[in-house]
Amino acid sequence: MKTQKLSKQTISPHAQRHLSPAQKKELADAARKEQEHVNDIAGQFRQLKELRTKEEMEARRALHDMLNQAIEWRELRFYRHTKDGNDYVDIIDRVSGEVLKTIPEPDFAKLANMFKQHPGITLDITS
What we know:
This protein is α+β, with helices and mostly antiparallel strands and about 130 residues long. It has helices at about 15, 20-75, 105-115; strands spanning about 75-85, 85-95, 100-105. A 3-stranded antiparallel sheet has the order 1-2-3.
C-alpha cells in the first residue's frame, strides 16, 4: 500500500477517521508546527506594536518639549540701548526680567532681516 505525505491543509473530520495512526500523528505534528508559527508571528506583532507605541510616546514627548520651548521664545522682549557710543539690543526674558543676551545693533539688524527672509528660523542665545 502506498503512503501519502499529508499536507498542512485542513482535513475534514470524516476523512480523519480513515487515517492511520502514523498519518494522524503527522497531521497533529503539522498542526502543532503551524500553531507555533502563528504564535511566533503574533508575538512578533505584539513586539512591533509595543515598539511603535514607545516610539509614538517618545515623539509626543519631543513634540511637547519643542512646543514648550517655543512658548518660552514667545516670552522674550527686546530692549535697545546705547553703551560706550555703540547701540545694543538686550534679549530679555519677559517673565523673570533676566537679560539673556546682549547683541550689537548691527548684528541684531542682520538677525532681524534673516528672520524676515526665513520664517521659523531658531535663534540660539545660549552661546
